[in-house]
Amino acid sequence: MNEAVISDLSDAGFREAGQVLCMPVLRRLLSRPLPVVDMVHEDAPATIAAIIAHLPLGKVALAIFVAVTTVFVATTYDSASYTLASAATQVLHAGGDPARWHRLFWAGVLGLLTVGLMFIGGLKVVQSAVLLAGLPIAIAGIFMVRSLLGWLKEDTAHAVVSTKAEET
Fold this sequence. Notes:
Pfam families: BCCT. The protein is mainly alpha-helical.
């Protein structure tokens, strides 16, 4: 068979499979629309669960969403606590791990910080905290870029001198 014919047949198969999967979702969304805007104004976090539950096999999709989200949050906190414990450990040999109690301490601090920000005032407080924490880091970043540019200029000058020396 000609490669173009095989390509057309496989494209058509994928197209039909996509239609078979998407049409029930679109049909359900169009036949029973959700008042998403009103739901967001009432309870924004619950809106995500309501949208997922509204889909075909919504309970299964919601269970998968909760499982994936839980794994994502757990691995994120584990990585963050490991990094903080590694940075805060005074003597850590190459390839070594920080003490388990140190990692647990930082995981607890991160958890308390998250819960505290949620109880204090939600998203506005988190945005303010990120802005306040990010400002000094941005200023340090400016100095780091300036230092990098100076280092690159110095390194380029040495490279030009060594290239001229090799040519002679």
